[in-house]
């Protein structure tokens, strides 16, 4: 019984967790969940003020850090500051993503999609994930204790979108869709995850992708109703419901799990 309990322990006492996009809808929940399990948390966000606010809400053991994950120098400086502050890194939640500074360009139709917007999204969603994994990975490897990297993908990194759920949708002041760049970037996350899992296995660093389904975040009722018809469980997720799977992957409970894709999607990809 004790062995079973040990293998299913999700405590993270004494560990340092880094969460990129740490002030976002999922990121802030991740930071709070990690702290609740005993981790010290580096809240990393493009907005220094937002990162500090989340860290202050968590309290002792959390600190905010500013970082543009698409900028190699910014990533290097941020990871160095985290290592200086905490002395180690054990968990990286590679969560930062973007809808760009101009949402209407992000949601443009495929035929009219600007290459500039495509490159901006890719620079954060996959280049930024590579840069953070590279920089934080060096610290984890140097520590010699192993660790866990959780890379945030999406159901649309696994399957194509169902355009019917966007009929009558509204978000951020206009109609929405799932752009090809989003699907392409999130599929790339899964490829990078599996490569890193094999690359770092010798260092006892586990790397897994977490695939959330749609999370309620201000979409209008029409979208939520149509989305629910496409999900076996009949609803969108709340942000809180993605925290548990993340904690599992971060913790010793998943000590023999690497290179995997865990979908928390209410069954969307089962249909």
Which features would summarize this protein structure in a list?
271 residues; alpha/beta; globular
What report would you give on this structure?
By secondary structure, the chain is α/β, with parallel strands linked by helices. The chain has nine helices and seven strands, in the order αβαβαβαβααβαβααβ. It has helices at 2-7, 25-36, 48-58, 72-86, 103-106, 115-143, 180-200, 221-229, 240-250; strands at 16-20, 40-45, 62-66, 91-94, 147-152, 205-212, 261-264. Strands 3-2-1-4-5-6-7 form a seven-stranded parallel sheet, with helices on both faces. Helix 3 (48-58) links the parallel strand 2 (40-45) and strand 3. The chain is globular and about 50 Å long. The termini are far apart.
Total strands: the figure is 7
Question: What does the overall shape look like?
Answer: globular
**C-alpha-based Rg, rounded:** 18 Å
- If you average the pLDDT, what whole number results? 94
SSE order, as H and E?
Answer: HEHEHEHEHHEHEHHE
- The low-confidence parts are none
Q: Provide the β-strand percentage band.
A: 5-15%
Order of adjacent strands in the largest pleated sheet: 3-2-1-4-5-6-7
Q: How many helical stretches? A: 9
Distance between the termini: 37 Å
Structural class: alpha/beta
């Amino acid at each position: 019984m004790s062995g079973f309990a040990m293998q299913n322990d999700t405590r993270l006492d004494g560990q340092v967790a880094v969460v990129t996009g740490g002030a976002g809808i999922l990121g802030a929940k991740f930071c709070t969940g990690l702290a609740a399990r005993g981790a010290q948390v580096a809240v990393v966000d493009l907005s220094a003020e937002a990162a500090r606010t989340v860290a202050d809400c968590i309290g002792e053991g959390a600190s905010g850090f500013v970082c543009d994950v698409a900028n190699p120098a910014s990533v290097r400086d941020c990871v160095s500051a985290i290592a200086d502050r905490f002395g180690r890194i054990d968990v990286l939640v590679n969560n930062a993503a973007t809808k760009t500074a101009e949402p209407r360009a992000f949601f443009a139709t495929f035929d009219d999609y600007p290459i500039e917007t495509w490159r901006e999204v890719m620079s954060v969603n996959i280049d930024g994930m590579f840069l953070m994994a590279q920089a934080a990975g060096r610290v984890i490897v140097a520590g010699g204790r192993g660790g866990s990297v959780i890379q945030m993908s999406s159901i649309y990194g696994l399957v194509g979108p169902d355009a019917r759920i966007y009929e009558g949708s509204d978000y951020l002041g206009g109609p929405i869709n799932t752009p090809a760049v989003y699907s392409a970037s999130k599929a790339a996350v899964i490829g990078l995850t599996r490569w890193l899992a094999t690359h770092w296995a010798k260092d006892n660093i586990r790397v897994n992708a977490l695939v959330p389904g749609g999370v309620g975040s201000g979409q209008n009722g029409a979208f939520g109703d149509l989305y629910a018809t496409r999900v076996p469980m009949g609803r969108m997720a709340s942000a809180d419901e993605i925290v548990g799977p993340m904690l599992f992957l971060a913790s010793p409970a998943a000590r023999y799990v690497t290179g995997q894709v865990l979908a928390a999607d209410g069954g969307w990809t089962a249909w």
